[in-house]
Amino acid sequence: MSKNIIITGTTGNLGSAVAKKFISEGYHVLGSSTPGRSTPDDGVDYFEADLTNPDSSKEFFKRAFKKYDTIIAGIFLVGGFGMSNIENTEDKDIHKMFNLNFLTAFHCTKNLYPHLKLYGGGKMVVVGAKPALEGGGAAMLPYTISKNAVMKLAELLNETGQDDYIQTSVIIPSIIDTPVNREAMPKANFSDWVTPESIAESIYFLISEKGNKLRDTVLKLYGNS
Q1: Model confidence at 179, in pLDDT bands (50, 70, 90)?
Q2: How many domains does the structure of the chain reveal?
């Protein structure tokens, strides 16, 4: 079986850890990179794409399919975060979070789904958010709304995915232990946070055959909290 997989957001802390895990397991990882930006020499085969743009996204997947023929899964990690409540949220804040979180997931799943269906099925993973699942997101209103839309997208994809042998899973991480988050919250208890490496292990489980037995496609990754 082909072991070609698309992982977006591989230049970030989480994406790089996920890519590293899959490469260590013998996968060929295709990653997206922001147009005009340099990419690390990390074993990922990078293609430039603005995944908030439908035409750029379509071209990205077209190039991927042409080079690798068969892709068996997609892990879509591109996204963004922002703090603002109903009183200080502007239209631009909604658009920014919606573009970064929902549209990137929508464009990626839209382009990969038909390919997976054509070749007998496969798996996709998107990223939700704890406040979108459990509440408490009023102080990050645009972010929470956009992540809620991502989770609904996965739910709807699974309605048809059962017949097409395509499983779309949602990972729900709590605070991820990254240098940026440590700098932003220096007094926090870092041991309660979830590491990029542990998330990578969980995503690998979802993509593996062992993940076929899961009935619940929403996976909570809350660290020790």
Answers
A1: confident
A2: 1
pLDDT digits (tens, 9 = 90+) for 127-157: 999 989 998 889 999 999 999 999 999 999 9
- C-alpha to C-alpha distances, 18 to 8, 29, 75, 177, 201, nearest whole angstrom: 10, 10, 9, 14, 8
Paired strand residues for 195 = none
Residue 31 sits in a domain whose CATH number is 3.40.50.720
Ordered strands of the 166-173 beta sheet: 45-48, 28-33, 4-8, 73-76, 122-127, 166-173, 218-221
Helix (H, G, I), strand (E, B) or coil at 97: helix
Q: Which of 215, 220, 21, 4 is nearest to 112 (CA)?
A: 4
Q: What is the Cα–Cα distance from 41 to 102, expressed in whole angstroms?
A: 29
